[in-house]
Design brief:
The protein is mostly helical. It has one domain (about 20-300). Helix content is about 80%, strand content about 0%. The chain is built from twelve helices and no strands. The chain has helices at about 5-30, 40-60, 65-70, 75-100, 105-125, 130-150, 155-175, 180-205, 215-240, 245-250, 250-265, 270-300. The protein starts with a helix and ends with a helix.
Length: about 300
């Protein structure tokens, strides 16, 4: 029997795991410039290869042997292949942005993502939205227009990150399997291509791995563990805290990215960009308040 003390301890641990996961994701932009001399494509290839090796090792250590049988079915394998393509796009654009002075745009992408996920629910699941949710979608759309005018182009980094991660979340929901298992199979799809590209770079003299000192090489290898660790922490958090709490924690990552972009990397925030971000923040406040009130009403009914 679970006591209130056990429940409190479980909730505290889950919150700590969630803060750690989103905190690490929020600090990711500070890592990639450390190895920026490799270039975004080589960095993506390393992230895929080392993520595969780390996730495979974790699967062998942590996941029951019989779980593989449930994953090797045609519908799941097809969706995992789609997830692999989508997450490779997300990783590649994120790495490029972090190493080319677009960290603030990455933050915007992950702020927009929850709103796009709601819109995806309407398009794919035919879900009905409350007026406040439609208002949030409208505010996000206006924000994109404002930022397009300010940048002189659409905020494509933000949009690609938001769309790709929303699609990735949709596919992961459909697959409904553990973080380690899915990451292993996703990276297994991509690893041969990534490894082939690294071999090509070595043959043509363009590979930085092993050629720019031990520090650079070890940091490239570290791209695997730093990809897997937040996923494990997130999985541990998701089983211990309510979805409403997890929904609030998710804003930590883009907030840290935004702070890094402005305060650490010195990216400029014009008046128009503040307006665009302000509209998105207003939409998220409305969305979060609505979600918390709805969750509270559901608890009262039960």
């Amino acid at each position: 029997m679970t006591t209130p003390g056990d429940q409190d301890s479980r909730l505290r641990k889950g919150t700590l795991y969630g803060l750690s996961a989103y905190g690490l994701w929020g600090l990711f932009p500070a890592f990639w410039p450390l190895v920026g001399r490799a270039g975004a494509v080589e960095l993506l290839a390393h992230r895929v290869v080392w993520s595969f090796l780390v996730s495979l090792a974790l699967w062998l250590i942590l996941v029951p042997r019989g779980s593989l049988r449930g994953m090797l079915v045609r519908p799941k394998l097809i969706m995992l292949a789609g997830a692999a393509v989508v997450i490779s796009v997300n990783w590649g654009v994120f790495i490029w942005a972090a190493t080319n002075g677009h960290v603030v745009e990455t933050a915007l992408g992950y702020y927009i993502n929850p709103i796009l996920s709601i819109l995806l629910g309407v398009i794919i699941w035919s879900e009905r939205l409350a007026p406040v949710q439609w208002a949030c979608v409208g505010l996000a759309a206006v924000a994109v227009v404002v930022l397009t005018v300010d940048y002189g182009r659409p905020p494509w980094v933000s949009l690609v990150l938001a769309v790709s991660f929303a699609l990735y979340g949709f596919l992961k929901k459909k697959i409904n399997a553990g973080a380690v298992e899915t990451l292993t199979i996703e990276s297994a799809y991509l690893a041969p291509i990534a490894l082939g590209y690294l071999i090509f770079l070595q043959a043509t003299g363009g590979l930085t791995f092993g050629h720019l000192g031990w520090g650079h090489t070890l940091l490239l290898i570290a791209s695997g563990p730093i990809t897997a660790l937040p996923l494990l922490l997130f999985a541990a958090s998701a089983t211990r805290v309510p979805l409403s709490t997890l929904g609030l924690l998710q804003y930590l990552a883009p907030t840290l990215q935004f702070i890094l972009g402005v305060a650490y990397f010195g990216e400029q925030m014009s008046f128009g960009r503040w307006i665009g971000f302000g509209l998105v923040w207003l939409a998220l406040m409305l969305l979060t308040t609505y979600g918390l009130l709805r969750a509270r009403r559901s608890r009262i009914r039960t």
